[in-house]
Structures are given as C-alpha cells and as structure tokens.
Design a protein that fits this description.
- The chain is mainly beta.
- Helix content is about 5%, strand content about 45%.
- It contains 1 helix and 19 strands.
- Strands 2, 4, 6, 8, 12, 13, 14, 16 and 19 form a 9-stranded mixed beta sheet that branches.
C-alpha cells in the first residue's frame, strides 16, 4: 500500500514539473470540475419523430462520450435505458458498452481527452397519440467509471508555535483553499494542524491535516470496486454510494489517513484527517513541504433526452 502510494505520487510529481522546475504544458489538464460527459448526437438521434404507421421503424440512438478531466477514465461502463414499449433496443451488441478514455494530461494543451462515438440500434413502436398529437418519451444513457483526483499544495509548518522562547517566525498556520483539479471530486480546502505532544509539557508537535473533499461534478460518487452496479437496472446498494479512498504524502512521509471517506446523500462535502508519522521538536526551525493528495473513486453521470412522437 505505502509503496504503491509513493510510486503513484512520484509519477504525479514528475507529470507536474519539468526539468527546470517550471510547470509544463500538461498543467492545464488539472483544472475544471468534469470527468466523463455524455452528449446525444442530434443528427443521428433527433428530438422529433413521425409516429410509425404499421411496422416498428428502425432507428439509431447516437451518443458521444468525452473525458473532459485530467486523468484516464478506466473501464467506462455505458448503459442505455428506454421505455421499451415506445423505443425498444434492438441491437445484437446489447445495451451496454465498455471502453477506456485517456485524460487531458496525455496531450499538451488539449481541451478534452479521449472521445468515443457510439450508436445503438432500436425500434420505434407506434403509439396512440393523445388529443395534442404529441407523445413524449425519455431516453437515458449512463456512464459509470473509475477515476482519480490529484491535488497538491506547499504547506509551511511552524514547529516552534508552542515553544516557550519567543522565536520569530514567518510561517503562518492557516487554511489553504485549492482550485479545481480536472476531476468531479475535488480537494477544496486543507486545514493544517499541529498536535502537541510531551509528558512534561509540550516538547514536540506532529503535523496533521484536515482535508476537505467535495463532489463538484454533476453526477454521483460510487465505490471504486463496485462502480458498475451504479449503471445496472437494479437499485444500487447504499453502501456502494459516496465512497472515496484517500491517500496522502507530506514530503516523503506517507500520512496515516482514514482511507475511505463516506459522504451523506444530502451533503456533497466532507473531510478526512491525515496524520504524519513524524514528530518535530518545538525548537526545530520551521519548514515547508509539499502535501500531495490522491482520491480514488467511482463516478456516475447520466444524460437524458426527451423524444417527441407526432
């Protein structure tokens, strides 16, 4: 676990800095609040159809799936849902698709990542029109996928905050607010804390961080190990909703975090506490290190379209 975290964060650091320490062109990828998005292809699948006269009419439902986030969307699981009495799926490939979309970080200055154009064969059945001569039916396409958020910020630690002697310091312990990270779940704020330790007075401090997370996207957070259930016809179990796995490093120190954070159904924001395994003397000089946070989770987005039959 710790070895994987160190390797993963070193890769993240390498991707975010160039040889001379400046930001490379891939830094733009870590902005925005979206991951995978879905758009219906209106030319292939228009809003209005003529009511079939006798036989069901063949039709196609087309969508474009785009990864607008920073990192790769792994094993995107796409499902189509219709009112079968009106629009009946009739595709030998079924109503599910699985694919992977690369992220914006792969291509310098890319506005979006990977794209996938998909179509489903279907049959439109004749319906008895009401007096308005218009019948509306809904078509939904959902995408469930695994995703990762990467966030980082330098943090100054004032080790002598509890020192008895008056030591001049330029380091201030304060909340740090972060910008968007090119993902639908974001680290919005970090609150640095110092846990005081000592048997005969405060002699040491242990850096601790309260890391605030928020669902900033338009979808639902899913357990990364059961994310496909979010796109099945059956109802998803509550324990598979709103779960995020959190890992973090402060410099080279792997932090001890409550690994899985749960969100309530009504609150899109929560926090996790991560503690350093190191402690420092209150007489040590202040220092600054980079805090790196990785979030792993599943995510679900749904796009709906109302189709009118006249």
């Amino acid at each position: 676990m710790k070895l994987w975290l160190i390797v993963g964060l070193l890769v993240f650091l390498a991707a975010c800095t160039s040889g001379d320490g400046s930001l490379p062109s891939t830094a733009h990828a870590y902005s925005g609040n979206d991951g995978v998005t879905i758009e219906f292809l209106d030319k292939l699948f228009p809003d209005t159809y003529v009511n079939p006269i006798n036989q069901p009419r063949p039709m196609k439902i087309g969508v474009e799936v785009i990864n607008e986030g920073a990192v790769e969307a792994k094993d995107v699981f796409l499902t189509l849902t219709t009112v079968k009495e009106v629009i009946e799926p009739n595709d030998p490939r079924g109503t599910e698709r699985v694919f992977t979309l690369f992220g914006r970080e792969r291509i310098p200055n890319a506005k979006v990542g990977g794209r996938e154009l998909l179509d489903f064969d279907a049959l439109m059945h004749r319906v008895e029109l009401p007096p308005s001569n218009r019948w509306n039916t809904i078509v939904e396409v959902s995408a469930c996928y695994q995703y990762e958020t990467r966030a980082g910020t330098p943090i100054c630690v004032n080790t002598n905050e509890f020192a008895i002697t008056d030591i001049e310091s330029t380091c201030e312990t304060k909340d740090i607010r972060l910008k968007s990270q090119g993902a639908p779940v974001a680290v919005t704020k970090v609150s640095p804390l110092l846990e005081a330790e000592g048997s005969t007075g405060i002699t040491h401090v242990r850096p601790t961080f309260r890391i605030f997370l928020k669902n900033v996207g338009d979808g639902d957070i899913l357990d990364e190990n059961h994310y496909r259930t979010g796109c099945n016809d059956i109802s998803i179990e509550p324990e598979y909703l709103n779960k995020v796995r959190v890992s973090a490093m402060f410099g080279n120190d792997v932090l001890d975090c409550d690994e899985t954070l749960s969100f309530s159904r009504t609150d899109k924001e929560n926090f996790v506490t991560c503690r350093s395994g190191q402690r420092f003397s209150v007489n040590d000089p202040e220092f600054t290190r980079n805090l790196r946070v990785i979030l792993n989770y599943g995510y679900r987005v749904t796009e709906s379209k109302i189709v009118t039959i006249e």
